[in-house]
Design a protein that fits this description.
Blueprint: H1 2-18, H2 28-31, H3 35-62, E1 67-72, E2 75-80, H4 87-106, H5 113-132, H6 138-144, H7 149-166
Antiparallel strand pairs: 1-2
Helix pairs in contact: 1-5, 3-4, 3-5, 4-5, 4-6, 4-7, 5-7, 6-7
């Protein structure tokens, strides 16, 4: 079910950005963007991605866990030694990426091009996560260690959707 919902949400997000007037949003700000504004959108996109990964790493460091950052699938992949951690610690490490990424988006200014890039990337990563990471990744690890990935993914998706609709486009 979560895969179907993520497909629908991604399609809505992509079609919303492609049209010039969706749900009361005209995208006037993006139409008037200058090259430096586009660059700031790019910086926001990179910052969103890095915030996700930094959330994992900070918690792994706090738990004194052994980990390696490798490149698999669609980018960096953090592998950690789970035998030295409790199930609760592993669940927190798993949820920290999407949670941190989306919560930071709540505190960014509504009228910034940086914020546009940040929250758009966060929303795309969050909403598409179940499709992009079947059988591995944060949500898989949550379920593996007695978490509820469907519920948490739903909450993160709601936060990212809220962040998308609160900013000026």
């Amino acid at each position: 079910m979560k895969y179907i919902l993520s497909i629908i949400l991604c399609m809505f997000l992509l079609t919303s950005c492609a049209n010039t007037y969706v749900g009361g949003v005209k995208f006037d700000k993006l139409k008037q963007a200058k090259p430096k504004d586009i660059a700031m959108i790019g910086v926001g996109m990179v910052a969103s991605f890095l915030t996700h990964e930094a959330g994992h790493i900070i918690l792994l460091e706090a738990f004194n866990a052994d980990y390696d950052v490798t490149f698999k699938h669609f980018g960096p992949y953090i592998e950690f030694e789970d035998s030295t951690m409790s199930n609760n610690e592993i669940r927190w490490v798993s949820r920290t990426g999407l949670l941190t990424q989306n919560i930071v988006g709540l505190f960014l200014p509504e009228d910034s091009f940086f914020t546009v890039g940040y929250v758009a990337t966060s929303a795309i990563e969050t909403i598409s996560y179940p499709i992009r990471n079947r059988g591995y990744g944060d949500l898989y690890t949550l379920d593996k260690y007695n978490g509820n990935s469907s519920l948490e993914w739903g909450v993160y998706s709601l936060i990212s959707g809220y962040n998308l609709f609160r900013i000026e486009w």
